[in-house]
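hey can u check if this looks right to u? its 155 residues, i copy pasted from the old doc so theres a chance i mangled smth
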Amino acid sequence: MAKTPQAAGLHRASLPKLHDLDAALELMYYGWRGMTLEADAYLAKQGLSRPHHRILYVVARRPDIAIGSLIEILGISKQALNRPLNLLLERKLVTSKRSPEQHRSKLLRLTTAGQRIEQRASDHERKVLREAFDRVGAPGTAAWMGVMETIADNN
């Protein structure tokens, strides 16, 4: 997908600032959108979206994760997980099996197709981050990581 400033919704707006941190909020919003743009286009071609990718991302890094643990990591409700997870199971991108220790618990794992989709979507995002980090250098990368860690620890 070609990125052009004229494409609808792809340009940054120059919105009036109502607070001294509005410029940072705007950059956070547009930065996230810029990082996920190609990944989301790829996912859409697969009939998937951002919530599906979040699930695939976590399950790829925690094979045999219990559904309860996935809910906790994602910070969402069981109801919010239900639809996207069911689609991933139906499409055979994720498998589910009963835990041998706790029969009421289901363990999730990516299939080969699920691994491929997660890898490609995440590769799009990693490419954007790598290019940005290369442009700002080690000090800029370290500063960004520090800000993001502090924000993430707010949870």
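The beta strands are 65-66, 94-98, 106-110.
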